[in-house]
User: Which sequence fits this backbone?
């Protein structure tokens, strides 16, 4: 079993969250990384992070985001997932 086999079995939103986390990590490098890492992921001014956030909060992910949120134990992931679900619902409603 290769690394790709594991990600193929992961829920789509978990894969998208991993991409978002990787983008955030890359964006938070450099001398001001301590400041950047405290910025909520949805407020980071980085094109890759913003695209990963749009991908995660796409309205087609609404049901899976709702389910994924209930499975989270990490407070930081719960906070991100809660905000993602809020934004996803707004996008689904056309706001």
Assistant:
């Amino acid at each position: 079993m290769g690394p790709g086999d594991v990600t193929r079995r992961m829920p789509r939103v978990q894969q998208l969250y991993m991409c978002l986390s990787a983008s955030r990590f890359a964006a938070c490098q450099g001398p001001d990384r301590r400041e950047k890492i405290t910025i909520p992921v949805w407020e980071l001014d980085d094109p890759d992070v913003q695209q990963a956030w749009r991908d995660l909060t796409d309205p087609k992910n609404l049901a899976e985001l709702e389910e994924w949120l209930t499975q989270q134990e990490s407070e930081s992931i719960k906070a991100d997932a809660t905000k993602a679900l809020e934004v996803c619902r707004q996008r689904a409603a056309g706001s």
About this structure: Residues 3-92 form one domain. The two ends are 43 Å apart (CA to CA). The chain is about 65% helix and 0% strand.
